[in-house]
C-alpha cells in the first residue's frame, strides 16, 4: 500500500500580471491614442515629450509598463536615484492631470499636478503629486515633487 503524503497547505497563487501592453494597446496615460503612437514612441526614443504634461504622461506609462530605463533617462541628474525597483503586485490603473503651469515652447520650467491611481495587493489607492520639470538641451526632465502647500 502506497504511503500517503502528509497534507501540505497550498501555496498562495501569484497575482496574475496583466497582459503585456503592445504598440496597438490603448496608451496607459489615458490619451486617445495607441501606446505605440503615444508614450511608447517616447519610451523607444522615436519621439520626445514636447511639454512637461506629455513627459508626465510618458513617465506614468513607464511605471505602468515597467520601463525603469526610461524613467531614469528622463529624471534630472541632480535628483535621479541610482536605480528603481517595481512592486510586482502594483498595477497602475489611471492618471488624472489636475493642472499645469509653464511648459510651453517659451518656457524652460513647468509643473504638472496629477493623481495617479493604482491597486496594490488588490486595494485601490492613489498618489498625488505636483511635479517640477525643467528643459535642458531641448529635453524636458523630471526634477522632483513640489512640497505640499
List the defining traits of the structure above.
31% strand, disordered N terminus, 149 residues, 4 strands, 4-stranded antiparallel sheet, globular, 17% helix, alpha+beta, Nuclear Transport Factor 2, Chain: A
Descriptive account of the structure:
With 149 residues, this protein is of the alpha+beta class. It has a single domain (39-145), classed as Nuclear Transport Factor 2, Chain: A. The chain is built from three helices and four strands. The protein has helices at residues 39-43, 52-65, 68-73, and strands at 90-102, 109-120, 123-136, 139-145. Strands 1-2-3-4 form a four-stranded antiparallel β-sheet, with helices on one face. The protein starts with 38 loop residues before the first helix and ends with a strand. Residues 1-18 have low confidence and may be disordered. It comes from Streptomyces natalensis ATCC 27448.
In short:
Belongs to the UPF0225 family. The chain has 149 residues and is an alpha+beta fold.
Write the layout of secondary structure elements.
Blueprint: H1 39-43, H2 52-65, H3 68-73, E1 90-102, E2 109-120, E3 123-136, E4 139-145
Antiparallel strand pairs: 1-2, 2-3, 3-4
Mean pLDDT: 89
State the major sheet. Answer: 4 strands, antiparallel
Low-confidence stretches: 1-18
Secondary structure category: alpha+beta
Text of the CATH class: Alpha Beta
Task: Please list the strands of the largest sheet in the order they lie side by side.
Answer: 1-2-3-4
> Order of SSEs, N→C?
HHHEEEE
Count the beta strands. Answer: 4
* Distance separating the two termini: 74 Å
User: What is the helix tally?
Assistant: 3
Instruction: Write down the Rg.
Output: 19 Å
Looking at the overall shape, the CATH architecture is Roll
The proportion of residues in beta strands is 25-35%
Report the CATH topology name.
Nuclear Transport Factor 2, Chain: A
Number of domains: 1
**Which term fits the overall shape?**
globular
Helix content: 10-25%
Family: Belongs to the UPF0225 family.
Protein name: UPF0225 protein SNA_18485
Organism: Streptomyces natalensis ATCC 27448
Region (Disordered): 1-25
Amino acid at each position: 500500500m502506497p504511503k500517503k503524503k502528509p497534507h501540505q497547505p497550498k501555496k498562495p497563487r501569484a497575482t496574475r500580471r496583466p497582459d503585456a501592453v503592445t504598440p496597438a494597446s490603448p496608451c496607459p496615460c489615458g490619451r486617445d491614442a495607441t501606446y505605440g503612437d503615444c508614450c511608447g514612441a517616447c519610451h523607444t526614443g522615436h519621439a520626445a515629450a514636447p511639454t512637461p504634461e506629455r513627459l508626465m504622461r510618458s513617465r506614468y506609462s513607464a511605471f505602468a509598463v515597467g520601463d525603469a530605463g526610461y524613467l531614469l533617462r528622463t529624471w534630472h541628474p541632480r535628483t535621479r536615484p541610482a536605480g528603481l525597483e517595481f512592486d510586482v503586485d502594483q498595477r497602475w490603473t489611471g492618471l488624472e492631470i489636475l493642472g499645469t503651469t509653464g511648459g510651453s515652447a517659451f518656457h524652460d520650467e513647468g509643473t504638472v499636478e496629477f493623481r495617479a491611481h493604482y491597486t496594490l495587493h488588490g486595494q485601490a489607492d492613489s498618489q498625488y503629486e505636483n511635479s517640477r520639470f525643467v528643459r535642458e538641451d531641448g529635453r524636458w526632465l523630471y526634477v522632483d515633487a513640489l512640497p505640499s502647500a
